[in-house]
Amino acid sequence: MAPNDSAETNGTAARGSAGRRKAARYIVPAAVAGVAAATIGLVPALASSGDPDLPKITAQELIEKIAASDTEQFSGTVKISTDLGIPALGGLAGSFLSDAGGDGGKDTSGADPQARLTELASGTHTLRVAADGPDKQRLSVLDDTSEYSLIHNGDQVWAYDSASHAVYHAEGEDKAPRDKDRAAPEGVPTTPKALAEQALKAADGTTSVTVDGTARVAGRDAYRLVLKPEQSGSTIDSVTVAVDAENGLPLKFTLRPSSGGKAIVDAGFTSVDFGKPAGSSFTFTPPKGAKITEAEDAKGHEKARGGLGEAEAAQGAGAPKIIGKGWNSIAEFRTPGGAALPSGASKDVPAEARQFLDALGDKVTGTFGSGTVFRTRLINALMTDDGRVYVGAVTKDALVEAANAG
After folding, report:
1. 266 and 244 Cβ atoms separated by less than 8 Å
2. In the prediction, which pLDDT does 26 show?
3. Cα(87)–Cα(201) distance, rounded to whole angstroms?
4. Which sign, positive or negative, has the C-alpha torsion 322, 235, 13, 246?
5. In a domain, 293, yes or no
6. Does residue 296 form part of some domain?
7. Contacts of 185 (CB under 8 A, 6+ apart)
8. Residues ≥6 apart with Cβ < 8 Å to 82
């Protein structure tokens, strides 16, 4: 019979020992995973051949196993999908990316990882991943007729989009990912471990952590670690991480919403091999005729296009104020100059963008005044008419309450 051991994790327990403190920092509400993302609702892609019978393990021991995992070599296939419950962007997303490239709407860096990997924030995707220590990683996003690959090898980062025949190149230690499991830029989670580490960082008394049986993931025996908020008001119901019973590597990550329905985030290996990947996986030579964009060129172009505006925006907005803690954390900040953000009714906003804003927004009022709540299944934001913004993985009512208190 699969073990069903549970343990409550709180701030007091986390301070029990140095080892527990190290492990405890990995437990955090996935409210931060807005990033989450991160950050994905996948049709379950992992075949199951029955739950394995494994030795009993406590939640604390399993957390420590994740923290101590030193797996540096692996390769495999990952399926990842996002369902934030927002309307399809249609041509709007392409328009945003073109604007980011400047040059009259022409994208000057079609293989730029920062732009391309944001596509993982919607739909279902198949990825091939490989890692050989902290200096070599490869990530490939597979489509029906094309492939996008991102290769990190030492101080070199290459990206290639076969559809557009575009190449992106960055050189220098500051350009290289420092996490042995991350080929993507910081903040773009592409493996179950990267997602899990966003959800497992610090026990603060707001999280229930249990071991809920076992599973078979990509042919591997795994324990199921389940995190649940102990507070009301979060958009998150639970986070489940399937942890390899042998080496402690997270194999699957699932984030479920408090509103019910399918998962927002479900990402996991469909196949995995812990042998040393072939050295050729981390080498790249630009194909003949490919257009190569150097990172410094793209950076300089962006500075020329909007660097001053970004600096002014940062100066006007200031650092956000954090209201509450744990799963119910809300970030409060002001828009530059305290100006209200454009609404769907504004004639200065393109028609397609107006349609998108109207589909997301709910008009709300309170003692704070009036504003609009823009909603997804994970992250919600209240933008007041006097230029304040409240953002968090919390319900609309929680945002209004925070604005009233502010």
Report:
1. no
2. 34
3. 32
4. negative
5. no
6. no
7. 113, 114, 117, 177
8. 37, 39, 40, 41, 120, 121, 122, 123, 264, 265
CATH of the domain at 111: 2.50.20.10
Query: Which pLDDT score is estimated for 384?
Result: 93
Positive or negative, the Cα torsion across 174, 176, 180, 182?
Answer: positive
- Give the residue numbers spanning the domain of 357: 319-405
Under DSSP, is residue 286 helix (H, G, I), strand (E, B) or coil?
Answer: coil
User: What percentage of the chain carries pLDDT values higher than 90?
Assistant: 48
Instruction: Characterize the bridge pairing of strands 136-142 and 123-132.
Output: antiparallel
The larger pLDDT score, comparing residue 109 to residue 388, is at 388
In the chain, the N- to C-terminal Cα span, in Å, equals 51
Is 113 among the domain residues? yes
- Alpha carbon of 37 to those of 90, 194, 374, 375, 387: distances in Å? 20, 11, 16, 15, 24
Asked whether the CA dihedral 186, 191, 193, 196 is positive or negative, the reply is positive
Alpha helices in 348-395 (DSSP H): 351-360
Place of tokens 């997301």: 360
Which token pair is 91?
Answer: 């041509």
Contact 59, 9 (CB under 8 A): yes
Total number of domains constituting the chain: 2
